[in-house]
Amino acid sequence: MLRAMYDLQLQHMIRPGRAVVGEFTEGEMYLAAANMANKVVISKLPAFSAYASRIVPTKESLQILNINQTITALAVGRFTSDAATDLLFIGTPTELVVYDVPQNREVFRKSTTGGASSIAVGKTGRIKKTLAIVGGESALQGFDEDGNEPLWTITGDNVAVLVLFDVNKDGQVEVIAGCDDHQIRVFRETEQIFSMSETDKIVSLAVLKDQNFVYGLANGTVGVYEQYERRWRVKSKSKPLAVLGFDVTGDGEPEILCGWASGKFEIRDRFSGNLLFKYQMDDPIAQILEVDDPRNHHEKYILVATAEGDVKAFAVEDSTSKEYTVTFLQDGQSHDMLTVDGEGNSKVVPVKPDAEDGESVASVANIPQPLSREDSVYDWSTVPDNVEVYIDVEPNLGNPNYFLNRNLPSGKASALPADMDVYVRKDDGSMDGRIGLPNLFDKPSLKFTIRTSDAAYKIPGVVIFTEGVFSGESYYQYASFNCLESLTPVTEICVPVTG
Q1: Is the pLDDT of residue 96 over 50?
Q2: 104, exposed or middle or buried, with CB in 10 Å at 0-12, 13-18, 19+?
Q3: What is the pLDDT of residue 50?
């Protein structure tokens, strides 16, 4: 699926979300990243190669830009289609700086309303000029190549992330703004045309295909919207620092690549959210980027950059294969390869030159992949297929067939239907005509009994996901002993419950 191209060891730490790729010299690709000292480190990317290599750039080969302010955002782009190279756009708490890297000069700098927390470069609505669109504290601003400001509008809160695309098939590019007040707002020029409410701050956005986009929240949620309707979401204990849509299988449909603060790198199916691949890296993943390399007929590949400055490049390989595998360079000075499949199994492929023709040959030695912390809690692969997990619900709300027993050892099914709605009576006894819950424990209640068909196999714990019922959106209960837990919703709203 993906194979290692090179590891670029930048030797500078990278701020999460503040790394970009641009063509700063005609025909050459560069990585620009903000380090912890608020400097922009620029390194030329190696050319596309059939053989993996480990690269440590010299200090002389790096270009360092001293900004002297906190770097809050980075972007690349061109104001005109006939421009030969990209410009670098730098956001700070007070202004936008536009920089010409090959000429080593500022194009312009402009004060912004509430700083520049996010930047996107492109056209929007009926505005003919390409703009540098800046999201700040409660405002969106758009600057053209002359520094003029043809776009300015109010947002509800700080704009943490921006993407540009036609989300509603109206033939015009909209601005999608992820804000700190849990809202994803859609703007057509200065008009807000839609808003989607989420459960925490929006920390990442990426365009997929066919009016689909992926989002990430500070509470560990990742999901997909199709136009204005959410299709699915999943929840993790870590924060999704980077998301990207990229076709890793060669079928024309982008998968979702996600990098987490825990160092986990995931690939998910964009239609269902099913996990296709995961791998645990040593450091938080600061950014995932797509490279469109003109040096190899615009062959596209991806960069996975960690917070410690280790930048791993991967190219799509064997697009006809149905197996989800990623090949990494081994850590350290070894040039051996590590191939990891979608189940987390790995094998080392030692690479050595052949004495006769000089080509690389490989021998394979299988080694076990250590279980991650969340995998090691309980291994369902040891449970026989005939052992089932039963979910008994009281009351059944008048529908005996509504709650079905689910066989869970595969880990692929939710224990409860995703569309189960639970209603609680208001103080005045009204529920807008909907069926409510009876008083099982001196208050409206829903009782779950979770058991296995074979008492020899214990359930280590239960996770319940829902909005508005628990602070943090989810609840986990250890099952080391029989317990009866009373949970009180934090809000009086109608919400779906899954487990």
Answers
A1: yes
A2: exposed
A3: 54
